[in-house]
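I am writing to request your help with a piece of structural work I have in hand. Here, with my thanks, is the record as I have it:
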Amino acid sequence: MQDVSRAVAAQVHSLNKKSGDFALSICSEMFRRKLTGLDYHDPNGFDCSDETQFRNCIVWLEDQKIRHYKIEDRGNLRNIPSSDWPKAYEKYLLDLNCPFGVQEKKEALDWLLGLAVRYEYGDNVEKYKNCRPLDTSANSDKAVDPLLNLDSNSPDFKAGVTALANILKIQRHDDYLVMLKAIRILIQERLSPEAIAMASQNREGVPVALDKHILGFDTGDATLNEAAQILRLLHIEELRELQTKINEAIVAVQAIIADPKTDHRLGKVGR
């Protein structure tokens, strides 16, 4: 039983790690898109975890887009190698009324990028006001599968799907849309916040005395006998869950059958 518990714990830890890696990948893609829109010099190579790149990006945002300080007041923020830079950065966030602190690195950067995008639009309203949204359609009320609008032949799309499939250890397929749908299903069932929360909960079970359960056969090995008893108990539990679902289905059908509509014109009961 301890080995089974360890295996389950290891699986949960693996899923949590994959979830973290996936979240990091999404976060990097989000930064890349905003930096690209702001004409940053190297949006594809930006790494938020690299302290030098992070500081350079903050200074660039202030110098080129946000411009909250006067030029002569940006000295402390521009002094990237200084050990006092974190203090200058903290003051900068406070002066901008940023809701995130220096410890919330990614959140603060995303907020600054959003502020920069807003200022960029404000400075170039005529340039952007006639841009049509990517999801504009004749019938916007109907829910459209976003996968239908993707170019499955794009090299960037194929590279992104392949990278996600490798991270999540999903079987390769010739159709990249099929792979993307498999990725979506896995994320919804195992890596969604709800699924991770359920997997992380410590479930306290009732101790089972294996010696009180008759196996019905003997393998000749005590360890194998114990493993067979555990498997049998797990199988019984699965059968109980299946029986419960069958009972629920029967009740649902009976509820429909037991509620006939009466047609008085025909003088009989029935549908």
Summary: The mean pLDDT is 76.
